[in-house]
Amino acid sequence: MSESVFPPFPGEPTSVPARPEWSALESWVWQTIGRGLPADIDGHLDKIFDPKAPDDRLEDRRLSAAFLQTIALHEPYKSALPRHGIEIVGAWFDEAIDLRDGRMRGVFWLHRCRFEETVGLNGLRCEGVISLDGSVFEETVDMRSLDVEGGLYFRNGARFKKVDLYGSHIGGNVNFSRALFTGRLILNAVKVGGNLFGKDSCFERDVGLKGAVVEGMLDLRRSQFKDRLDMWWLRTGQDLLMGGMDGSAVSDQRSSFFLLDCRNARIGGQLNLNNVDVSGDLNLSSICITNEALLGYGSRFGNISLRLAQIGQHLTFATAKIDGRVNLTAIEVGQDVFFRRASLDGAIDLVFAKLEGNLDFCGGSFGKIDLTGTTIAGELRLKNDTSPVEWQDNAKLILRNTKADALHDSPSAWPEDLELDGFVYHRFGGLDAEADDNLGNRRSPWFVDWLQKDEPHTPQPYRQCARVMDDMGHPEIADDVLYAGRERDRVEMARNAHYMPALGLWFLKATIGYGHGAARYFRTLYWVLGLTLAGVLVLMGTGDYVLVNGQIGWSGASVDQKVLTLVQAASYSLDKLLPIMDLPTHHLNVILGDMSRLYFQGHKLMGYILALFLLAGITGLTK
């Protein structure tokens, strides 16, 4: 045409006529679109078309591939299109559609249409919106490197075999809610300027979102993923929503996943996996989440990995059922971590983690929990105002080199198997501790029994507990705990055939109670009394002495004799036991026989040993 072609005024027919080779339906579609109206073939035929179960009159709805390509990409038809663009409802296409690398203006709507062959939109640039709502595609839809300034829609019962959007750029929203994908959906490296919605859909093959960038939110709630969902290096500017908060047990109201891989993703808002089922592995390793991560409220998982993850706010597994392991190695969480009322069949590996809030296991059921090297800025909670932790058979809690500000527990909240070596905390009791669980209601035996669970034995847990008890104003409990710790040291040494150190500890125990507690120093007095009595029995039982004019001589001497009184014998025995003391019998010259002399040498040595142990205890050398 020699003159420029312009779109018609609203309601007026187009000035560009239909081509002679077009069918009557195609001519009607062009004239209808040319007036700026949707080409509704259902209304034209007065019959609703179901593209999923077409009737025998498909020929009445047939549009050729050449017709669609002509009006979309070729002049003068392209320029004659109204600003609304192309809107067709209820058509049947039995040929391959090829719109590759084309340039389109306005919208491109093909609603409730049926496509028997491939549709090629790769490299296409569209200034408006592409909408395929309710349509059925029996072969591949190729949208690689698609560039759409507006949105892209596959909603409302649309059915696809395979869709490839690799490297596409969509300026607005992408919405494939309430759709069925029987083949693969490839969204790798796609860039979406708005939100991406995939709610209430079913994906029978794997879905790829590797390296995708979504400036808004990504919403996949209540959808069924029967194969892998790969979201490596995904970036979202807002929330990633895959579950909800309603806690529904109805399968079609819950999201379900076979395998979910979201490694190295960056989520600009919240991650919501509440009320979902993940039958295989959930891999969130190295994920970075600006707000909170919700993986609870009725969710069911297999294995979970959040290794090296960074979460800005809360992380919760509350009420979740987890059949496998939970790997939280080296995770960083800006606020609390909740396992409240969760049930785990596998272990929790929370080693070398950094938690800025509380770690809460209240009301949950667990087997093995490993907190080696973890730092908890708030409370380690094993009991709240409703229920403590329920420990499964052969449960174990590892707190090796763990640091926490406080322990919020109860006497029944601990498993039988503990590792406490290097565990550092500052106080017992939490913010909402019940009166029955207050520290003042516990006595020394409880703390001793608690520390006895530590295997293998190390001295540090006893010293740590004693330090906390002393700081909290319970020095008597602190002394009892330290005493129990030394007792366990002695037992372990004897068990490991270290007999000499064990014997030394036995003497410390027997003489000064290891120096822990003022009352235990009175054990020295028992030794003094016992040894004094033993000396008296030796003196009075051997007959090796006589008292002559104030001096002791041999029995049977030819001088006046007098046997020592009981008081004199006791004074003499005590004087020899405590050589640093000057008793009234010190000036007496007592002459002993060989056996008595040998005994009192040992008697005097015991006095020095008792004095040494007493001095060491007082100065703290035994502690």
Polypeptide structure, described:
It contains eleven helices and 56 strands. The strands form five sheets. The chain has a 29-stranded parallel sheet that branches. Helix 6 runs antiparallel to helix 7 and helix 7 (475-495) packs antiparallel against helix 8 (499-512). Mean pLDDT is 85; it is low at 548-561. The protein is rod-shaped. The chain is of the alpha/beta class.
CA distance, first residue to last residue:
105 Å
Radius of gyration, in Å, reads 44 Å
Contiguous low-pLDDT stretches (5 residues minimum) are 548-561
Tell me the fraction of residues in β-strands, as a range: 15-25%
Count helical runs. Answer: 11
- Provide the structure class: alpha/beta
Total strands: 56
User: How many strands, which pairing sense, and closed or not: the largest β-sheet?
Assistant: 29 strands, parallel
Helix content: 10-25%
Query: Residue-averaged pLDDT, rounded?
Result: 85
What overall form do the CA principal axes indicate? rod-shaped
What's this, in brief?
By secondary structure, the protein is of the alpha/beta class.
Descriptive terms for the model:
29-stranded parallel beta sheet; rod-shaped; about 25% helix; 19-stranded parallel beta sheet; alpha/beta; 11 helices; 56 strands; about 25% strand; about 625 residues
